[in-house]
Design a protein that fits this description.
By secondary structure, the chain is mostly beta strands. The protein contains 1 helix and 12 strands; from the N terminus they run βββββββββαβββ.
Length: 120
């Protein structure tokens, strides 16, 4: 896959992946890049697509180790993190992204990673 820089729009982040069908990416809403959030009240939000069969939210530490992975049904565009998430964070900095899957299980959209800073 080739990484492209595009003009920001309501449909896509500034960086997306090029695939044969064109420019496709999931749109993250909040938390914004490098935004600080209270560790006990983290809510992840993205634009829900009507064509998604399933969403996958991934949250990792800076080193890439997964600390949360959640599968969500279509039409859901948010997820409130469990209270134990802050305990699994190694340094208060997390990365998160959302992937969208079709009914066959094939990933069709994927956001870029975003950094989130926890307020402890």
């Amino acid at each position: 896959m080739q990484v492209l820089r595009s003009r920001p729009s309501f449909l896509c982040l500034p960086y997306c992946f090029q695939n044969p069908a064109g420019l496709e990416c999931a749109t993250l809403l909040s938390p914004a890049e490098n935004e600080e959030w209270p560790a006990d009240a983290i809510e992840f939000n993205w634009s829900a697509s009507t064509s998604a069969a399933l969403y996958k939210l991934e949250v990792t530490n800076d080193d890439g180790s997964t600390i949360l992975s959640a599968l969500l049904p279509p039409g859901i565009g948010n997820y409130r993190a469990p209270s134990w998430l802050k305990e699994r964070s190694t340094n208060g900095r997390l990365r998160w992204r959302v992937s969208e899957f079709e009914e066959t299980g094939k990933a069709v959209r994927e956001s870029n990673w975003r950094v989130l800073k926890l307020i402890r």
